[in-house]
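Hi team,

Below is the intake form for HicB-like antitoxin of toxin-antitoxin system domain-containing protein from Chroococcidiopsis cubana SAG 39.79. Please confirm the fields before the structure is written into the shared record.

FORM ID: S-0412
PROTEIN: HicB-like antitoxin of toxin-antitoxin system domain-containing protein
ORGANISM: Chroococcidiopsis cubana SAG 39.79
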Amino acid sequence: MKIKAIIHSAEERGYWAEVPALPGCITEGETMEEVMTNLKDAIEGWLEVANESHSTTSTN
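The structure came back. Fields below:
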């Protein structure tokens, strides 16, 4: 699955990233490597919560 993310330079230092297709899915990191790792974790967490929420509403 490919998900588009936008990575921005932070004003203070480092980077922050957002995933437009996943509202509220944002993260940050001191280095590009760190923001990429955090972005992967943020996307996985967002999808996991969305899946659990969908499963809960489907059974009610």
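SUMMARY LINE: Strands lie at 6-9, 15-18, 26-29.

Thanks, M.
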